[in-house]
Amino acid sequence: MVSYATVQDQFCSSYDKRKLCSYDIEFIDRPTRPLLHQTSRFLFIEKGSGNIKINGVDYKIIPNTFIAILPWETTEINVVDESLQFVKIIYNSDFISQSMKSTYNTSNDLLSILTPIGNYPVIYCTEEEAKIIKGILNEIKNETGVESIYDVLEEKELSKIYVTNKLCELLIHFKRFITKKDCRQEDGRSIELDDRNAIFRYMYSHLNEKQTLTKISAMFYMSESAISKYITDVTGFSFRDLLNEMRIVKAMDLLTYTDMTLNEIADLCGFTDASHISKVFNDRVGTTPKVYQNIYRNTHDIFGEREKSVSFEIITYIYENYMEDLRIQDVANKFKISIIELNRILLFQLEKNFEELLNFLRINKACEMLLKSDAAITDIGVMVGYNTVKTFNRNFVKLKGMTPGTFRKTILFQNGSESILVETLHKEDE
Questions:
Q1: For the segment 45-70, what is each residue's pLDDT rounded down to a tens digit?
Q2: Which pTM value belongs to this model?
Q3: CB-side neighbour CA atoms (13 Å) of 18
Q4: Residue 265: which of 283, 286, 289 has the closest Cα?
Q5: What domains can be seen in the chain, in order of their start residue?
Q6: Over pLDDT 70: what percentage of the chain?
């Protein structure tokens, strides 16, 4: 009998999306079933020992283990040597990371806040580090109360700002701990990451794009059948059903935390229009987007009204014109903002500056054209917006790790078996 990861969503959790986060204490004395989480969480182990599996990777857990779990990651406590007691914080990582980025000096290079956490989700804290984390967790508890015993406190003045700052502190400390440490298991063994889980993160990060098994196959150098099987084996969902689930969850956040119109939300989440998202939303949630928004609407706004409107217009404009001779100064002038402000908006929304976004869109389009047409590589480079073959090749290698010619030849082998692909890649390396 196949055992799928249970999808942990807001309908079977005590977490209330109207709040920034929930604080709870959990006790585990036996192994748990696998869970596929829709929302982010921190776990801090206070007592006990055992083993947690995150995205197929086993980690030893002991007191002072600090764990960060991002959306669409699978966890399972598969060994309990000694009964576990841990603090659990559930929060909206998109909102918190964007809060941090909105105050960042974007004239400097902005690193992704969440990517390092996705690669190294478990930290073994020193006593000094544990003291810092315990202090922040205790402050959150004093502000929000304990969820499971309904110790929900009356909201204090400026509570949302206070809790936001505390969650930002947790993210900052986690990232600093990663940077400081040689990320290994508690017993010193190196961590072997399962690269396949990046499929879930890729899907969630590109919901506004048309996604197909063929495209994802090209991105991850796996056959379509292998990707489909992996998704179903882990989640029980088909590729299409999981994609719709992710899109609905993203739409929920946008309905809760922004003033975007339903058409704008549909566009950003990969739906055809407002009518399409309304139908899928109602089928999945059991209510209309408008009713849901009225229930869960919050006042956590990062941008002002004009900024939110402009950001949507800018992103739409770039997506519609990236194959043209698009220059950052021209785009900034069109929307009557500075280059710094333009990059701030793009970094905030997509974690890419103008140049990174432009290259990302162009190279992905080039990949599609390399697979679907017999056009010369030189012509494809020009068609997607590059002035010279040299620039096209340089950016292609930077993003894909191989030349356009190698990509076309390698990916064509995926029409056969996966073993042929692997052998071909090895030969290219030689």
A1: 999 999 999 877 899 999 999 999 98
A2: 0.54
A3: 7
A4: 289
A5: 6-181 (2.60.120.280), 357-429 (1.10.10.60)
A6: 74
